[in-house]
Amino acid sequence: MARRIIVLVLVLARAAAALADDDIHFLAEHVVESGMDAVYMSLPWPTSALTRGRWQPSVDLSRARATAGFMESNGTVVEGALARGVSANWGYEVIAAHGTFAIAGGEGRAPLTRNFLGPVPLDLPQSADFSEPRGTQTQFAVGAAAVHERSAADGALSAQLIAGALLERVEIARFAMNYRLLDGGDAGSSGTLAYDSRATFVTPFVAWQRTRTVSARWTWASRAMLVAPLPPRDLDARLTGPQFDLSTPPDADAIQIGDSFVVLGLAFGHRPTGLEIDLGGLLYYPEAETASHRGVNGARVLHIAWRRRTH
Hints:
Blueprint: H1 2-18, H2 24-41, E1 55-68, E2 71-85, E3 90-105, E4 107-112, E5 126-151, E6 157-181, E7 190-213, E8 218-227, E9 233-241, E10 244-247, E11 255-257, E12 261-270, E13 275-278, H3 280-283, H4 285-292, E14 296-307
Helix pairs in contact: 1-4
């Protein structure tokens, strides 16, 4: 069943990506959204099983990388949570997350179009050479969730249904690259293309976790989560060239960022130390990003965590 769900998610994502255009604006958008997805892949999960009246902390650390053509995003995500049981079947969790990403790369070629830029005093769309992508992406989030838990009589198996919301802030700063047109009436013209955003999202999420104790020392947990940042927010663009400087706003409408994302994970935990590694970032995230974000040709998240257990 789990395998069928994974296949269905990837097939639908590839179908959606096939409808998208992969000009430079979409590549830039998808680099940004891959960083957002890396933060979602790294969100903390409640310890199982929760203990009534006791705080159970967790600390999560991830290294993330995504490439889209000649651009790449490299970052670190640090997250933490406190979970607390309030009854035999209910508890809650408070969450904090912080991700920082550096956008860089080399040289590449992609279509430069009028998309999102309105009237441009250049003969577009045309193929262009791009170079020196640079910039930063920062993401902050705080949130809380309710946890409903069911455990087997012997405690070897537990299942949790989790529902909550995050308040997120995503900042894209100084994300820019140089361009030079290769074709058309303005071949040889050059300038700078830049992107910027200060976006706030309310992000509801619902998740499911099933944890099995396989020995006195080891557990494994299968996980699924749907996150939906709302509402879509602006990624503003600015294009400069020979005697012009256009930006959104006021010259056109901005690009929209903030896609829903499905997280799938499989985590192995070491009971004596509380250490855990989630293989979803290495096995699922690369396929999900290349399927859902056309132009992304590589992605990975290495996600490790420490969770305090009381059982």
